[in-house]
Structure formats: structure tokens, C-alpha cells
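Possible regression after last week's pipeline update?

I re-ran a chain I had predicted before the update to compare outputs. Posting the input and the new output here so someone can diff against the archived version. Not blocking, just want to make sure nothing changed silently.
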Amino acid sequence: MAASGVMLAQCNRNEPEPASPPAAAPEPTPPKVIATPTAMSREELLDAVSRAASAYAAGEATQGSDSLVGRPFAIRIPFGCNGPQPTPAAATGDGLARWTWGPEQKTIQLTLTPGDWLNTALIAGAADGSDWEAVEGFWIPRPWLRKEACSSIRADALQSGEVTPSPQTVGLAAVFRADESRVGRRNGRAYAYTVRPDGDSPLAAPAGGYRAVLEGRLAAFPGGRAIRCRASGPDQRPVCVAAIQLDRVAFQTADGETLSEWRPG
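New output (post-update):
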């Protein structure tokens, strides 16, 4: 009996210790999600310009980095809403899109010639000390209209004489550095497209005009800001220009059909 107890005790001593439960594997760290900024619309871009104009007029000093720099944008600029417009002299570019009739009104010619803004008063002072070699400018007409559509206001039939349009006050300056490719520069050449009729059907003037599409990213003036404003006096609306890197230019119909596009890069 005693011997049996000794043997049982010996067996108990020889049994292996129970294994510890395996350590729980650490939960994987979820990947860091970096929010991709959405492209600024016409409305958002014009709101940013309005804030910059107000800050300039109030003499507010801007501090820190500009969150607008690097933001993508995509805007549609209505043009030709009230019919064809005469083309300016071939040697000049006014930065405005327009359409004109071709010979015998059998075609419609769309054009947009960027302006040479490098030596203009608004850009020249800002570009001092920069490596900008060319600056090609585009205006955004009717900046009080936030929608990407033609104005519903019609000219007064009793108005005598021609109504003078308001001066342009909001622009986009496509900047090109000396060490960059020159392929995307227009150098005075227009973005142009010819609208032709389908078959024998005659062309009609577009009821809603056309759209010029500009896409890219906001760049920075040498001072680090994306938008620069200037005014000749306190009672003048400031003229504001945003520096941009241009990625795409296109012509579209009023309902969004792309007629032609260019990718300067």
C-alpha cells in the first residue's frame, strides 16, 4: 500500500507541466488614411479669391503657410452666352475664351489665347527673385456668378448704346519655371477648335454658349501665397490672380460634352 503511494507520487512528479496558453497576436495597425483633397470648384475658388481680396483691402498680414498651395482645382468658364464675339488682333492674347462664325456660317471657331502676363504690373513685382520664365494668364469673367452657367440677365432693349463690360478682376496665372519643359507653353498660340455640322444640317448658334475647362493645382508666388491682389485705390475692386500649374484645358458644350482637350504636361 505504501509502495503504491510512492509509485503514484513518483508518476505525478514525472507528468509535464501544463503548457501556457499562446500569447494573443497583436491586432494589426490599420493603415493610415491620407485624405485626398477634392478639386476646388468655381464657387470654392472664387470664395478663396474674395477672402484674399478682403484681406488685402483691409491690410491684414498673412501668417504661416498657405493651405491653398497644392490644392487641385477644376473649373468650367461659360463663354459665348450672348452670341459670337470678334477675335482680337492675332498678335495679342487677352486670356478670354470666345466663339466666332466661320466662313458663310458653316463652322464655329472656338478660341482661347492666354495672355503674356510675365511683365504685367501684377506679376512682375511678385515674380522678382523667382525662377519663373513665363506666365500665361486666363481671366474668369463675371466672378460674381458662382455657378458654371450663363447669366440669366438679358440686356435692356431700351438701353441706348453698347454696355461696357466690367473690367476683369479674377485671373489664373499658369507659371512656367526655367528648368521645366517648354512643351506645355502656348507662346501666344490659341487653344482652338472648329465645330462642324453633322451632315448637311446647318449649324445653329448654341443657346447656352460653350464652356472652357481649366484643371490643375494652385501654385505659390515667391512669398508663399497662392493668390496675389492689387488695387489702384481704396474705391477700386482689387484685381486678384491665383498662381497655378495647368494640367488640362478643354472646350465643352453647355451640357458637358467634351469637344477637344489639351494636356500641357
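Follow-up from reviewer: compared with the archived run. DSSP finds three helices and eleven strands in the chain. Marking as no regression found.
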